[in-house]
Amino acid sequence: MRKRMLLTKLVAAISSKKRIWAIFLIIILLAVGVYFFRSLFIVATVNGQPIWRLTLIRELEKQSGKEALDTLISKTLVLQEAKKQNAAVSGEEIDQEIKKLEENFSKQGQDLNQLLSTQGISREELMEEVRFQKIVEKIVGKDINVTDQEVSNYLKQNENLLPKDSNTEELKSTVKRRLEQQKMNEKIQSWIESLQDSAKIIYFR
């Protein structure tokens, strides 16, 4: 009986030590995890005092949370609609569009990669943005058309603002693209509003 009690106490002591070591090990692992992944929780320190990422997120939500949320909702609706309509953009199309951007900036003596770096935008983010824009254009831009009469009217209405020594055909081409983009933007805005009106959007506050 006495031996059994001693054995029970010994087992209890060993179990207790194991629990202590397990707790100690967990604390060490948590400390190591926080150290190596501190950027997930802390965005900066000021004289040793941390500024928590959650605090930053809450502050950003106060300042521009509504606009950011609206943008995310709109993008989600567009991508959902694109899936319904099987509107896809190939990698080749994205590469071609980025090549155009590079050429346009190069003509102005600028480098696309440097501009992206200045704005804090990665090339992957640019590719994703181009993909999104091309998807929208495929869905909405099917019936966009600018007539010669519309171009002529624009030139007449804005002749005082246009450069005098411009090539007429180049000017007409530029104006036509500008009017197409204007019509596209108006149609996109109207289309997104219709998607929002017909969608079931639930906000969590």
From TrEMBL:
Name the catalysed reactions: [protein]-peptidylproline (omega=180) = [protein]-peptidylproline (omega=0)
Gene Ontology molecular-function annotations: peptidyl-prolyl cis-trans isomerase activity
Q: Does the keyword Transmembrane helix apply?
A: yes
- Pfam families according to UniProt: SurA_N_3 (PF13624)
Q: What is its EC number?
A: 5.2.1.8
**UniProt keyword annotations, A-Z:** Coiled coil, Isomerase, Membrane, Rotamase, Signal, Transmembrane, Transmembrane helix
Coiled-coil region(s) at which residues? 84-118
Q: Which residues cross the membrane?
A: 20-37
PANTHER family given for it? FOLDASE PROTEIN PRSA (PTHR47245:SF1), PEPTIDYLPROLYL ISOMERASE (PTHR47245)
* Protein name, as recorded: peptidylprolyl isomerase
Q: Which organism is it from?
A: Candidatus Shapirobacteria bacterium CG_4_9_14_0_2_um_filter_39_11
